[in-house]
Amino acid sequence: MTLKSPINLLVVDDEPAIRHTLRHSLQAIGYASEEAASGEGALMALTRHSFEMVLLDINMPGIGGVEACRRIRDCAPETGIIMITVREAEDDKVRCLEAGADDYITKPFRFRELIARLRAVRRRMRGPTQTGILRAGELELDIANRLFRKGGREIHLSRREFDILAFLMSHAGAPVAHGRLLKAVWGQEYGNETEYLRTYIRMLRRKIELDPSRPAYLLTEPWIGYRLNDPVVAEAVA
Amino acid sequence: MRLASFPIAAVRARAVRLGAGVLGDIALTAVCYRLQLNLATVSLLFLLNVVIQSLSASFYSAVLAALIAGGFLDYFFVAPVLAWGIADPFDVVAIVVFITTAVLIARLAARAFEAAARAERRRQSLEQIYQCSERILILDPGDNFIGPVLRIYREIFRLRAICFFDGRTAEVYEEGPSGGLRERTRLAYIAGTNDDSTVTAPVLCIRSRGRVIAALGFEGLRDAESAIRAIEAITVAALDRERAFRSASLAIAERRTEALRAAVLDALAHELKTPLASILTAAGALREIAGDTAQEELSAGIEAEALRITELTSGLLRRAEMESSKVRAQMEETDLIPLVESLVDRFARQHPDRRIELCEPEQTVSPLIADSELIQLALGQLLENAVKYSRPDTMVRVKVTTDDLCAHVIVWNGGSSIVPRDRDRIFDRFYRGATTEKKIAGSGLGLHIAKKIVLAHHGALVLEPDSPEEGVAFRMSLPIPAKEKDDAEITDQLVGSR
């Protein structure tokens, strides 16, 4: 379980006890970390040092978590950002993603889930290992040839279906907000037409999923958008 | 007894009055005979005497004076003088007219007196009643309310003794020398009818809403009839006021207690959040670095329990929040069966000594539009009740069914059914069945909140009617969004209810 090279992680939370426990726990499994007590503190730390990932709590005094996320994304675009949110605050999750967070995790979370998401973000940051082909579980998407296979069997997708699936698969494991998906597939002028997405996701599920009413790959992130299930993340959390 | 209270003074007073009339006549006769006044003048003077008697004395002495005056007139002033008999027939008329007039005047005067006396008595009675009600109204309806009321009655009506038997508490309140009054009051309450056997010592049954709730006994009550009705009305009003005051205080006290309890729970839950988060994280990390299975299992156990406590405290916080404000449901597509499954699973693990079963779902249930956390809270409450209020050897059964309109979750537990009296009230805020109150801890809020949640989902939560199997079943029904609705409509629903 211990990783070979220590990763630089910045833990940002206004509660000292939380920072302490997280850092120790992460250290036990090989993540080296530093801490900051606020958004401003995080930005200061980033001027001194570069980090591979930032773990950022959403509820903090001062500029707060979301604004900190936005600024971190601005000044350190390569850094992976995972935000810690609270269970009921769905609006906050949307704002996180819009502010540039790579993923979020909801309190109370199991440690395992945090690790899984950290790893998923790291993998995505490294980029796809093979150019042009996206894989997730049994799904295989060939962007250049516009081919899609599941378990080796080719499945025909319409243009939009393909584009949606491609975008989701290139962010496998991460939640993708409705707006972002709409802009990527339809264009910048779009953003509110969630009903388009619902329709297409339904059709995709019918084509891809074993049981469309209980999707295994195309998951709904309630209120936020959609997430393509990354089997690595799913396995680790189980 | 009779002889002792023989009114000697009254007899003497009457004798004096009668005598005064006669004396007046005698005096007048003497004077007028001496002065040789004529008949007209003498008659008028006698009449005057009669009038004076009427004004100040009784009817009878006035009449006596009139008759005697008539006799004197005849003897001394009407021919033949100093002899009985009347020579001139017209003089007969005069004397007859005189006597008639005198008697009439006396009669009229007597009547006027009587009326005035009656009015005065009535006025006094009203005055007493008014004083009573005024003083009772300003009494503070706290504890020890009845004593002062009885004292007021006793003082104003000048009673020898007064006794109050409270039917609700079987307590007796008394003012004045006790004697047979207490027993008579109690008997009258039991009999349910007024005791009118003694006019000055009646016992009144106090009725409220058609039922006899108390009895009030008097000793030494004068002019009872008019007073009695008023006393009854005043007493009922005073008792009602006291009861209303008491239940209002109780309600306030209850509300305050609940508010305090909610505040304490709230503060506690907030304090617990951070330490729990630390424990959860550390336990999770321990699990990752666990050297052997034993360590892994132990830390997995710590993690699971920490997670459970965290969910409990956030549940507490949500409850406190919901009690103070309206339920804010965040609706999303929810699969009912996995939700019920995980809930039953959790309860089975929490209560390993009880049998908690989920029946195999016969059909698949389409996704509902619901707030999964709130539904879990509501269902969790039903399960908690089922476990708490049933015997440990009985089973708890959960069943999920569906029809065209709704999905239903039925939670059944074995054991004694809910008594009819409680059936309507179990969903009331703070209500706890009379039998359970002393034995099992609870706030009485759980079912109330559960129902609130279900209603916020446009569903229903009902207590199923008793079946031949001895047990209690609750049914939660949640509406299924119609299949024909196209996606846009459903999306609108989701977005609109955000």
Walk me through this protein's architecture.
The complex is a heterodimer of chains A (238) and B (498). Helices cover 43% and strands 23% of the residues of chain A. Chain A has 238 residues and is of the alpha/beta class. In chain A, the strands form 3 sheets. Chain A has a 5-stranded parallel sheet, sandwiched between helices. Chain A has a 4-stranded antiparallel sheet with strand order 6-7-8-9, with helices on one face. In chain A, α5 packs antiparallel against α9. In chain B, α1 packs parallel to α3, α3 packs antiparallel against α4 and α9 packs parallel to α10. In chain B, strands 6-8-9-11-10 form a 5-stranded mixed sheet. In chain B, strands 2-1-4-3 form a 4-stranded antiparallel sheet, with helices on both faces. Chain B has a two-stranded antiparallel sheet with strand order 5-7. Chain B is rod-shaped. Chain B has 498 residues and is of the alpha+beta class.
Number of strands of chain A: 12
Instruction: Give helix and strand order of chain B, one letter per element, not per position.
Output: HHHHHEEHEEHHEHEEHEEHHHEEH
Globular, elongated, flat, extended or rod-shaped: what is the shape of chain A?
Answer: globular
- Compute the gyration radius of chain B: what is it? 45 Å
Main sheet summary of chain A: 5 strands, parallel
Summarize the largest interface: chains and residue counts: A-B, 33 and 35 residues
Q: What is the chain-wise order of helices and strands of chain A?
A: EHEHEHEHEHEEEEHEHHEEH
Structural class of chain A: alpha/beta
**What is the total tally of β strands of chain B?**
11
- Helix content range of chain A: 40-55%
Largest sheet of chain B: 5 strands, mixed
- The fraction of residues in strands of chain A falls at 15-25%
Question: How is the secondary structure organized here?
Answer:
The complex is a heterodimer of chains A (238) and B (498).
Chain A: E1 7-12, H1 16-28, E2 31-36, H2 39-48, E3 53-57, H3 64-75, E4 80-86, H4 90-99, E5 103-107, H5 111-126, E6 133-136, E7 139-142, E8 147-150, E9 153-154, H6 159-170, E10 175-177, H7 178-185, H8 194-208, E11 218-221, E12 225-228, H9 231-237
Parallel strand pairs in A: 1-2, 1-3, 3-4, 4-5
Antiparallel strand pairs in A: 6-7, 7-8, 8-9, 10-12, 11-12
Chain B: H1 8-35, H2 39-56, H3 59-77, H4 89-137, H5 146-156, E1 161-166, E2 171-175, H6 181-191, E3 203-208, E4 211-219, H7 224-289, H8 293-324, E5 332-334, H9 336-350, E6 355-358, E7 368-370, H10 372-388, E8 395-402, E9 406-414, H11 420-423, H12 434-437, H13 446-456, E10 460-463, E11 471-479, H14 487-496
Parallel strand pairs in B: 6-8
Antiparallel strand pairs in B: 1-2, 1-4, 3-4, 5-7, 8-9, 9-11, 10-11
Helix pairs in contact in B: 1-2, 1-3, 2-3, 2-4, 3-4, 4-5, 4-7, 7-8, 9-10, 10-13
